[in-house]
Amino acid sequence: MIKVEVNVPNAIGDFYKEDRDIVMLGALRHIVFGEMKKKEDKLKKAKAHIRYFEEKYKLKLEDFQKNMPPGEEMELHEDWVEWSYWVEVQKRLKRIIEKMDRLYTEDYEM
Question: Is residue 110 situated within a structural domain?
Answer without folding.
Answer: no
